[in-house]
Each structure stands twice: as structure tokens, then as C-alpha cells.
Amino acid sequence: MDTEIKKLIHLKFDEFRLLFTNFFEIPEDERYDRYEFKTEINHENQTFAIEKFWNAQILPLSIEVNASNNADEKRFLIAEFDSYYHYIIATCYGEDYRPHHRVGKNISSKELDLLSDNEKEWQLEAEPFLRQKTYLYELLHTCKQQIEYPESLEPKKSIASNQKDSPKTFKELFKIDDWKKYINALVHVKLLDSNYNFIGNPNKHKGVIASWFYSLQNEHNVINKGISRAVLMEVVNKELPNLHIGGDKSFEQFSVSYQKKYRNQLENYIENIPTLPK
Fold first, then answer.
1. Is this prediction's pTM over 0.90?
2. What is the pLDDT of residues 32-67, one digit of tens each?
């Protein structure tokens, strides 16, 4: 077996482990709950970095190893990842972990109203972390599947790049001409500046913007429902600088912050803006 390939595999998996474990703050005192989290980092950006590293650094290496038809290298690749996989599970989640936060099925406004003030505050502060934690747990299992079943290793091209007619701008994304009022609504609630740069709190407000676009597509019907979440995410990230939403699953749900604080403000704004004549 080529020792350089062996070193490279080990190096890349170790970088992946560091990215993963840096997402978490594991308390030395195990009496504390494992849901402790670092409030000073942007967990959504961290998730995006982990997924990007896997797709850009490890998948191509795995494809190369698989294409070499070297049985020893393949066995080493699988065994090496398996050891890192179990280390990450044990360190970051615990062997008995089950996803605490159901991605795409956030707590409802009615459920939130039943909570105490302290419980509400915890739910609103922890929600972004818990969503990303669950997303990473699912990502880790996807990575394991890709390593163990080489036929699934072909890198997936962006859906937007595979569709000639897929929208690239807001003008192409919306079905209506007066689409700007729906973006200006986000300016009105101070999540964007006048140039449509994202200026909100990354840990709280990215989910609000994703929720708003989910509503525009599925409730207001001003965005074609046939447009996938991945394409929607690409356009939104491109058109709203500094946003960087890292997972398209955000576009299939309503966040608690959106339901509790922003939905009515956004809805009221667009209701009071006249529709452009056709």
C-alpha cells in the first residue's frame, strides 16, 4: 500500500474530526448536559464548513482510492473512517444519542406558548444549535454510507447547475413583477440593509429568512413550487450577501423566531404595500 496515500487519508480524516469536534463544547464535568454549546461561534457557518470540507477534500480522495482498485487502500479507507466515526459519535453525541431536534419539525407557536419564560428563552437560544447538531448527525451517517458503499461516492452536482432554466436571480425566482416588496419586508424588520446585505444575528435570523422564503413559496405562491430547496438556497445566498445559509432543509420549515416575532411583521408589511399594476 502506498504510504503517501495512507498518510493523506489519515490527515484528511483528522481535519474532518477537528472541524466536527470544534462545533461542540464538551464539558469536562459529565454532570452537565451534552447540549452545552458555544454561543460565540456561528453554528450554521460551522456546519457549512464541515459539509464543504467533506465534499471538496474527502469525497474526491475516496473516489480516487476506489478507482485505483487497490484492495488494501480501500480496506484502510473504510477502517480509518470507521475509527473516526465512532470517536466523533462517542465524543460529540454519546453512543445512546437520538436526535433531540427534529429537523423540519420545529416546536409550534402553541407549544411555545405553553412553556415558561425560562424554557422559551432556552428554546429560542438553543434552536439554531440543535437544528445544526441534528443536521450534522445525519451528515455523519451519510458520510459513513458514502465510504462503505463506493457506488454512492460520485459527487453530486448542484441542482442549479444541472437545470438550464433554473433561476439565478430574484427576478427569475419570483413569478411576479413586484417581487422587491417581499425582500423589502426583510429590510423593514432590520434583517437586511438597503442594499440587501444580511445584517441580522447569524445564530437567530438565518432561519427567519429561510422561513420567509418557505412561506413565499408555499403560502403566498409567489415563487414556483417546483423550484427545489437547493436551488432556492443558492439563489437566496447569492442575492443576499453575508447570509450563507448552509443547509437547504432550512427551507422546509418555520423557525420559532419567525413564528413568534417576525411572521406578523412581515405579513403586515406586504399587505400595506400596493401591488404593481399588470
1. no
2. 343 344 444 456 677 778 888 888 888 888 888 888
What pLDDT score does 49 carry? 81
CA 49/CA 43 separation, integer angstroms: 10
User: Residue type at 114?
Assistant: L
* Cα–Cα nearest to 15, from 73, 58, 61: 58
Q: What is the pLDDT of residue 37?
A: 40
Give per-10-residue mean pLDDT for the chain (278 aa).
85 89 56 39 70 86 86 90 90 71 54 73 66 79 83 48 69 92 94 92 84 90 86 91 74 76 91 62
Tell me, what's the pLDDT at 164? 46
Q: How far apart are CA 235 and CA 96, in angstroms?
A: 38
Cα–Cα distance, 64 to 50 (Å, whole number)? 21
| Contacts (Cβ under 8 Å, ≥6 apart) of 83 | none
- Can you tell me the distance from the alpha carbon of 222 to that of 174, in angstroms, rounded to the nearest whole number? 6
Residue 138's Cβ-side half-sphere holds a number of Cα atoms within 13 Å equal to 15
Three-state secondary structure of the chain = CCHHHHHHHHHHHHHHHHHHHHCCCCCCCCCCCCCCCCCCCCHHHHHHHHHHHHHHHHHHHHHHHHHHCCHHHHHHHHHHHHHHHHHHHHHHHCCCCCCCCCCCCCCCHHHHHCCCHHHHHHHHHHHHHHHHHHHHHHHHHHHHHHHHCHHHCCCCCCHHHHCCCCCCCHHHHECCCCCHHHHHHHHHCCCECCCCCECCCHHHHHHHHHHHHHHHHHCCCCECCCCCHHHHHHHHHHHCCCCCCCCHHHHHCCCHHHHHHHHHHHHHHHHCCCCCCC
